[in-house]
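task queued by scheduler; priority normal; single chain, no ligands, no partner chains; default sampling; output format set to structure tokens
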Amino acid sequence: MFTADGCSVEVYRLLPPAGEAGIVHAAVPDGASILELGSGAGRVTHALLDLGHPVVAVDDSPEMLAHVRTATVCSKIEDLRLDRDFDAVVLGSHLVNTALDADRAAFLSTAREHVAPGGRVLVEWHPPDWFDTVRDGQGGRLGEVDVRLGDLVRDGDLLSAVVRYSSGGRWWNQAFTCRRLEPPGLDAALAAAGLVIERWCTDDRTWFSAVPA
């Protein structure tokens, strides 16, 4: 079963968390309420629950959300309008590097709209140097799934590739395109949504927290 954007529900059920929940947990108070945008089948959601956070998981795939063990909302991120806010909003999976500027603006606007006063938005992104160093065949093993990149094509600020997943003799492919953002462009996108970077959450600067400006 595949979602509208080509994600395999089966693969996302097999993939384990890769430390994302710990990064979020370290950046927010104990027990902080979390809105997770683009939760998929709950790979990170369930790890956040285990760390004591109440989580509302948002995804536009009912097939993905059927596997999530907490409150869920089936919605596109850009269409989400909840009558509440959260101590933290998580925008992971490098969604901020979406190819379309309008989508990035909408994602960040949704995050800003749902973060409580004094709260923060936790964002995972591809830093500029990732675009310089990523290569065909790059990847590794996540749990029982081998993950590799292939068919890389660079076109200005855009990079397209295919993620190849394999496990137990089965194979899945998922194509994607992402956009390189230099720090001034990232700052401008955040500012347009009423956000500003608070700090980097990881040494490799792949996660940062942003707060209302």
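post-processing summary
- The two ends are 41 Å apart (CA to CA).
- The CA atoms of residues 139 and 153 lie 17 Å apart.
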